[in-house]
């Protein structure tokens, strides 16, 4: 099978300050990968580059391919990156819904990359597209809210609508940037379970940045840990331990809460109390 995400030699600077250093990454079809690291380590910047929402400049070397198609090379975005974005579902921390529109209309926005522009402008969708949007809402448990104004939903519900939008989009790859950072634990659990379900049942490749290491341990097999713009670790979640996490987070993380002993990590349910500072 072909590699879904390939990053080679990626650098990024903002105003002369380098924030990503020679990053290399390969993600295979159907993987669910957690991106972890302290605040400012470069997680969101990397994710934005993967989706083609950001790019380096000519001084920033590096290339990114998604689904075998070039997103950027030598600090330049592929001119056809908009098309590629139709295959990438991007979940934002703050949901990015249009609050005054109905839940259903928001989910239908997922079709925009694939329908003729005039239809998108008129908001004219076929019955198949509407059925697909409703099926996506059912999948995330929100069919009964289809005709509610999006702004009236809770944060957790809005994030599930955003996931339904990515499903309707038909995205092959889901990039989720701190999707649970502003949610209560129960809403966070539901969002992570939906992402894991989409990964497990539909085989979609998921990369999710997380502040909460315990959710990474629970839902992802592979972890990529960033430290000061470098890939510090890339491997099995089983390799994480308190010493490693204290080093990664500079002592801001009380990993003893998470790994009281190695054996406890294998037991379910895993603790959900720990949040990185
Ligand atoms: N638009 C920007 N202009 C200037 N500097 C930026 C910009 N975006 C990010 N940075 C800097 O790049 C570095 C990495 O930021 P990034 O947001 O990727 O980190 P992060 O790991 O996602 O942090 P957090 O977990 O707090 O969201 C930080 O030093 C940040 O200040």
TrEMBL record:
A Pfam family matched in the record: ABC_tran
Superkingdom of the source species: Bacteria
Location of the ABC transporter domain: 5-253
Gene Ontology molecular functions: ABC-type phosphonate transporter activity; ATP binding; ATP hydrolysis activity
Coiled coil: none
Keywords annotated in UniProt: ATP-binding, Cell membrane, Membrane, Nucleotide-binding, Translocase, Transport
Gene3D superfamilies per the UniProt record, alphabetical: P-loop containing nucleotide triphosphate hydrolases
GO cellular component, one term: membrane
Leader sequence residues: none
Keyword ATP-binding appears in the UniProt entry: yes
PANTHER family (alphabetical): AMINO ACID IMPORT ATP-BINDING PROTEIN, PHOSPHONATES IMPORT ATP-BINDING PROTEIN PHNC
Name by which UniProt lists this protein: Phosphonate transport system ATP-binding protein
